[in-house]
Write a structure and sequence with these properties.
Protein name: Proteinase inhibitor I78
Radius of gyration: 38 Å
Mean pLDDT: 81
CATH topology of the largest domain: Trypsin Inhibitor V, Chain A
CATH class of the largest domain: Alpha Beta
Distance between the termini: 98 Å
Structural class: alpha+beta
Keywords: Signal
Number of strands: 3
Shape: rod-shaped
Length: 131
């Protein structure tokens, strides 16, 4: 073999090895492809969430609460009894009433159709509110 061919042989081996490796996806490029796919998926999910449902249910506003405690604020300071609590419920337009005594444990969920009557230790009304 001529000397010139022997000098080119290592370069050719290196070149062929580089060509064989270039067909594969580099690890950094693979992450980029995954990130692009995740971004595309997120955009599609956002678009589908922004599209209103076909049945139109989402267009309807939530029902307005029926309770209006401003109609019964004149009862503050008066003694409470069942008849007065029922009359306050009717006057406020509430569907039900709850009397809250001092130290009583109560749930904190909001119910726009409920009238809450807060009383002190002596049974006097100290506050009326809906919820």
């Amino acid at each position: 073999m001529p000397v010139r061919t022997l000098r080119l042989l290592p370069s050719l081996v290196l070149l062929s090895a580089l060509c064989a490796c270039s067909a594969e996806v580099a690890p950094g490029e693979d992450d980029g492809i995954e990130q692009e796919q995740a971004l595309t998926d997120a955009q599609q999910a956002a678009e589908s969430a922004a599209t209103p449902p076909a049945d139109g249910i989402a267009d309807a506003p939530p029902p307005a609460p029926t309770c209006d405690a401003s109609q019964v604020q004149g009862l503050v300071g008066q003694s409470n009894d069942e008849a007065k609590a029922e009359q306050a419920r009717v006057d406020a337009g509430a569907s039900h009433v709850r009397v809250l005594e001092p130290g009583q444990m109560v749930t904190m969920e909001f119910d726009g159709e409920r009238l809450n009557i807060e009383v002190d230790d002596g049974g006097r009304i100290i506050a009326l509110r809906c919820g």
